[in-house]
Amino acid sequence: MNNEIEKKFIKQFIIKNKRDRLLFELSSIKRQTGIGRFCHSADDYLIKDKIKLSGNKLYYDEIVKIAEKYSPSKQWYIIAYNPTLDKKICQLSEALSLVLGNGMAAIIVADNMAIVETEQCMGTPMRYVLVC
Description:
Blueprint: H1 2-13, H2 16-26, H3 31-40, H4 42-45, E1 51-55, H5 60-70, E2 76-80, E3 89-90, H6 92-99, E4 106-110, E5 113-117, E6 127-131
Antiparallel strand pairs: 1-6, 2-3, 2-4, 4-5, 5-6
Helix pairs in contact: 1-2, 2-3
């Protein structure tokens, strides 16, 4: 099931010429490398038309408001550089609490929506809210 969620995320939100490589990395021992590469240069991977909000000043409440509007899903899937969070399925509030502000790259996915937090290198990390 996790593989299907990841495939759907890639098909919905990643530009065509980056899909195969990212899918390969997520399904291999290079998983963390792929997550790290994606989150360091997410802007180069994402389909621009799918970005509903982006910036380094997107906060929990704003993200929840958009999620409630566009995704009724109760189950969210985490793709994370941190192995203890990676492949975890939980409710949105828990996923956001685990991911936002922890300094490590992560993607939270449900149905037709995804939330990306890039790795924190300096200052606040970039966040993207993606909607199909």
